[in-house]
Amino acid sequence: MDLGGKVAVVTGASSGIGAASAKALADAGMTVVAVARRTQRLQALAEADPRVIAHTADVTSDEAVDGLAERVGSELGACHVLVNNAGINAGTTFRDRQDVDGMRRVMEVTYFGAVRCTAALGGLLAASAPSRVINVGSVAGKVASGAPGYSAAKFALTGWSENLRAPWLARGVAVGQLNPGYIRTEGFPQQRPRATPLRRWVGEPEQVASAVVDMARSGAAERTVPRWYRAVVVLRHVAPGLFRAGAARL
Ligand SMILES: NC(=O)c1ccc[n+]([C@@H]2O[C@H](COP(=O)([O-])OP(=O)(O)OC[C@H]3O[C@@H](n4cnc5c(N)ncnc54)[C@H](OP(=O)(O)O)[C@@H]3O)[C@@H](O)[C@H]2O)c1
Questions:
Q1: pLDDT tens for residues 27-57?
Q2: pLDDT tens, position by position, 124-145
């Protein structure tokens, strides 16, 4: 798909992967609606590039997400690419009752946020076909790793996203999933891997943004960034014992 003159919505665009993706899609010629809660960050993006439109919304609110869809429909009349990127991590362990609340919060933002935005913009995406939904998952949504609640939310995203692919292709909407490995951002500073030999595995948000642009063009079903993290996913499935032994050592 030629992206020039088309419309994208990027959630979680106030920092990290979302901000880099909004910039990269605008550089590719798209009008980009940048969505997050921190208005000033979004305004700074919009001031730097006239193709970026700031829209403040919390993806955990049905009302706010419906308002976003209403604005995109009435002001821009189309949505060709939706990047469901907003996501949080909360708590690194799962031990007791209080971890349930953290897990619920992660699910609300990271999983249901994507579900909510896709549902609200689904009609417009179909009317604008060919179009794309790019769900920013994680390697932690393909192999159990990182925080338990976070990994569970990303596994949920993987199942939902893969399930949607065939029926939504029939509507002209290619649903794909982009799985980053360790990427250094504000919300995910990756201090632990950066303090170990894993530091060379830590990537930058711009690498993921470049894959977002590729997926927007191609409608690909899945990408892993950096690409060689895929070897970890393959190892988990062909040699699970070896994978668990390695994971336990790390
Ligand atoms: N960095 C990594 O290593 C890594 C690896 C795999 C996957 N990912 C995924 O990549 C995505 C982006 O993460 P990042 O690393 O770029 O982290 P980040 O810099 O912390 O960005 C997270 C973004 O999500 C937004 N957000 C959080 N809660 C929100 C809400 N309720 N409503 C709307 N927006 C919300 C934040 O904006 P506001 O606070 O302004 O709302 C921010 O723009 C996430 O889905 C994350 O799980 C990251």
A1: 999 999 999 999 999 999 999 999 999 999 9
A2: 999 999 999 999 999 999 999 8
Ligand 1 binding pocket (C-beta < 6 A) is 11-18, 36-38, 41, 58-60, 85-88, 109-110, 136, 138, 180, 182-183, 185-188, 190, 205
Identify the CATH class of 7-249: alpha beta
Q: How far is the CA of 242 from the centre of ligand 1 (A)?
A: 31
> Is residue 150 annotated as part of the catalytic site, yes or no?
yes
> In the block, which residue shows the tokens 């708590």?
91
Say what the pTM is: 0.97
Q: Which residues fall within 8 angstroms of residue 6, CB to CB, at 6 or more apart?
A: 29, 30, 31, 78, 80, 81
| Residue ranges covered by each domain of the chain | 7-249
Contact of 32 with 220, CB cutoff 8 Å: no
